[in-house]
């Protein structure tokens, strides 16, 4: 199986680290350390991908997403 890459940004404020996956709307996690934030976003992405794979083939579920420029 080919692996898909996801773009993730990591932010820091005075208390926590935040990891946001730009490829999944609303996917953001928090951790006390940068490593924890990265682990959390990785788990979120894996769960998201697994859920999408389970739903494939369900009538009405999108088969793909397109971006069309005009």
Task: Characterize this entry briefly.
The chain has 70 residues and is α+β, with helices and mostly antiparallel strands. It has one helix at 34-55; strands spanning 8-12, 17-21, 28-31.
What is the H/E order?
EEEH
Low-confidence segments, given as residue ranges, are none
* Envelope shape: globular
- DSSP helix count? 1
Query: In percent, how much strand structure appears in the residues?
Result: 15-25%
Taking the alpha carbons of the first and last residues, their distance comes to 34 Å
Structural class based on helices, strands and sheet pairing: alpha+beta
Question: What share of the residues lie within helices?
Answer: 25-40%
Describe it for me?
The protein has 70 residues and is α+β, with helices and mostly antiparallel strands. It has 1 helix and 3 strands; from the N terminus they run βββα. It has a 3-stranded antiparallel sheet, with helices on one face. The radius of gyration is 15 Å and the shape is globular.
Topology:
Blueprint: E1 8-12, E2 17-21, E3 28-31, H1 34-55
Antiparallel strand pairs: 1-2, 2-3
